[in-house]
Each structure stands twice: as structure tokens, then as C-alpha cells.
Design brief:
This protein has a single domain (2-134), classed as Alpha-Beta Plaits (2-Layer Sandwich). Strands 1-3-4-2-5 form a 5-stranded antiparallel sheet, with helices on both faces. The protein has 136 residues and is α+β, with helices and mostly antiparallel strands. It has helices at residues 2-19, 50-66, 101-109, 111-124; strands spanning 24-27, 36-44, 72-77, 92-98, 125-134.
Length: 136
């Protein structure tokens, strides 16, 4: 039963994220969509820091602009609207789209991603959480 509730919460959460007006999409013209989606949640060491949130947001936009394997990148801040099926404890959420897992693995070793991991995500984050799912 608990697994069903968590699945429902995640589904509601992901739907909500996609509808956020604060979500900004970075993609190159012919590269919309993808078969593999990766959702990333970022909790900052300095929770609520607009400056640190902006650094994460800019890094995700750079993934969408600079890494060929990333078909699209959507990123935004929590809107803070909680509820029984909403978790607003994170600072930034993003969704990256890839053609397949091989593309995601190439993205992981791309220098742009490696630099952002070392200079932005790891130093600023208290917690990082990722979900992956195949688009249907």
C-alpha cells in the first residue's frame, strides 16, 4: 500500500512539475522529446538561496544547450505550494530527456556535466535525488 501511495505521489509531483509556469525549457529545434526521462531534485545546503538556485538552473540550461545527448532540459524552482501529495522541501527540480540509456551515460561523462557536478551540484547540494523513467 505504501508503494502505491508513493507511486501516486511521484506521478502527481511529476505532472505538477511539467505544468509549472516557472519551469523553463532548454532544447534545440529538432531535438524535442526523448525516450528516457531523468528527474533530478536538488536540496541546497543553503536552502532557499536564490543565488545558489540560479547557479543550478544555469547549469541545467547549459546541459540543454551544450550536450548533444540531452534532447531537452526543463528546470524550475519549487513553488512552495504544499499539500497531502506534494513535497516542496527541495529547491530546484529538473527533467532531462535522452534518446536512451546509452545517451544518458555519455552525458554523464561529458565535460560540461562533469564541470557542473564538481563546481555547482556537489558543493552546493545537501541532497540530490534522481528518478528515471521510459517515456511512453
Amino acid at each position: 500500500m505504501k508503494a502505491k501511495i508513493e507511486t501516486v505521489r511521484l506521478s502527481v509531483f511529476l505532472s505538477f512539475i511539467l505544468l509549472l509556469t516557472g519551469c523553463s525549457l532548454s532544447q534545440r529545434g529538432d531535438r524535442a522529446g526523448g525516450r528516457l526521462q531523468q528527474v533530478g531534485l536538488v536540496w541546497l545546503k543553503r536552502a532557499g538561496s536564490q543565488e545558489d538556485q540560479q547557479k543550478v538552473i544555469e547549469a541545467v540550461h547549459a546541459f540543454g544547450r551544450s550536450i548533444p545527448e540531452v534532447k531537452s532540459a526543463c528546470v524550475g524552482r519549487t513553488d512552495g505550494e504544499g499539500g497531502p501529495f506534494s513535497d516542496t522541501s527541495y529547491d530546484v527540480c529538473f527533467i532531462l530527456s535522452f534518446e536512451d540509456d546509452a545517451a544518458r551515460q555519455r552525458y554523464n561523462v561529458n565535460p560540461v556535466h562533469q564541470k557542473a557536478a564538481k563546481e555547482v551540484f556537489l558543493p552546493l547540494s545537501k541532497k540530490l535525488l534522481f528518478y528515471r523513467f521510459g517515456a511512453e
